[in-house]
Each structure stands twice: as C-alpha cells, then as structure tokens.
Amino acid sequence: MAKMNLVQAINSTLAYEMERDPRVVILGEDVGVNGGVFRVTDGLAAKFGNERVQNTPLDESGIMGIAIGLALGGMIAVPEIQFEGFLGPAYDQLVNHAGRMRTRSRGRFTVPMTVRVPVGGGIHAPELHSDSPEAIYSHHPGLKVVMPCTPYDAKGLLLSALRDPDPVVFFEPKRVYRSFLEDVPEEEYLIPIGEAKVVSEGEDITVVTWGAPVFQALEAMDQLPDDVSVELIDLRTCYPIDIDTIAASVEKTGRCVIVHEAPKTAGLGAEISALVQERCFLHLEAPVQRVTGFDTIMPYYKLELEYLPEAPRIKKSIEECLAY
Predict the structure, then answer these.
(1) Which of 28, 49, 79, 285, CA to CA, is 20 to 30 A from 311?
(2) 121 and 264, same domain (yes or no)
(3) Choosing from 129, 140, 260, 283, which is the catalytic residue?
(4) Tens of pLDDT along 225-236?
C-alpha cells in the first residue's frame, strides 16, 4: 500500500501494465522525456524506451489515427490528448472510426485503445483548456467514457480500460491531479467500467456527480445541518451510466440533485434526470435539480469559480430540493 495522488496512481498503473503486457504503447505530444504537460507519463520513456512511449507532432487527428492503426494491428494504444479542448481535431477519427470499427467490421476488428485526456476547470488555464465534454462522447455508441476522481479508483478503472477490447475515453479531472493523497494497493485490482460508487450513504436526498465536483459536493454536505442525510454517488463512468445504483438511491430518498461542470443544456445531467424520471417517477418528492456550468464559454480564471458548481451553489440546490 502506497500513498499516491491522482497523477502518481495513473503513472504507476501505466508502468504496471506496460511491464505486464508488451503490446501497450503510449503516444502523444511531449509524453516522452517531458512526461506530458502534467508529467503523468514522467519516467516511462526512460524505463520502456522511445519505441513504446512516442512523442508526436502537434496533430491530434494524426495521434488518434495512428493509435487506431496500432490497435487494429494488435497493439494496445494509449494516446494522450494534452487538454480536452484539443479533442475536436481528433473527433472524426475517434467517433467515426474507433467507435464504429466493431460494428463496421461485424466484429472482425476491435480497437483496444484508451484515450487519456485531462479534463475540467479550476486550474486557471486559458481557453480550450478547461471544458467538460463528457456528454459529447457519451452520446456516441461504441465508446466508453470514464472519469475517476480518486487515485484508488483511477488505478482500478484504468486497468479495466487498458484491458477492454473497445475504445475507452479516460477523462482525468486535472483540478484534483495533485490535490490529495490516498492509499493505493500495490497489487492488481480492477473496477468494472459502468459501476458507480456510493461515496456517502444517506436517507433524505441523493446527489449524483462525477469528477472534481465530487469534492465540492462533499464540501457542501459539510455545511448542511447535522440532521440532513445526503447520499452521494460518484458516477465514475459517464457511459454506460449505472442507472441501477442511482435509481435504488432515489427510490429510497425521493429527491435528486445532479452536479456537473459542463454547461446545463444537453449536459449529461439531463440524461440522468430523464432516466430518474423514467425509473423513479412514483418515488419522487420533488423535481430533479441540476447544478451545472452555465450555457456560455468557460470564462478566464478571474471568473472561473463563478462558472463552476462550487459548494455554495450545491448547498443551495440541496436545501431547495429538500424544502419543496
């Protein structure tokens, strides 16, 4: 057992799997000697060589296309996209080729590929460096979308992603990259993709979130009266959604608040809200509420925290839902 932050947990997991399986290759901008912009791949080129940790040109479409080719050729590709805003140029390759290859080939070919992407705001980054596009990629069949927020979960989910025969988009909330340490077992363990985690059990209201907002939700819960019992669910996997865990909780509490960083309109919270309505309508004591980013471009750092769903807004929504 070792104490690790999120960066260290991902780095050590990549090293573990590269040691175990010589087919695993990493590619991306500055992932070699520099270890990537957040140093997540630091030391891996020195350990495994430039053949398995390859620097690429500034060409996200090319990175994704090469990764797909490697995966089709029998390798396990781990492309890194420096920031989530840079996924746009790789969209065609990821969605129209990687995500569709199994169906297009009638199962003859699969694309074992884990696309690592730092995601979200809260670090005073410039434009195109702080978005939360998980709903976009969750919308496309053929892709799995994962977003762990703790070092322990990151290891278990990353191992599952690396061993999945189909493409997985592995979003890493950069706001919590180095924010805290957690015990991470040295031995191997896998967390199934598509399985949410009940972070805190409660009876009065269900809060569903994922990524960095998990910690803002915990902060909001600390500010509530002692007699308010909140059940907090960390989705962990944005697609497929673990609606069974959410529904079981909402059937118990009768109330639900959904929190995410992305803009409100067509965000993943809307899909979860619809699923809760379909599954739990007769159990609801109040309308499902959403605490989200706003329907505008993520502002620069002076207004960044006004945009993000921080604890005060989450607390207010919980209180309004309970008072309904």
Answers:
(1) 285
(2) no
(3) 129
(4) 999 999 999 999
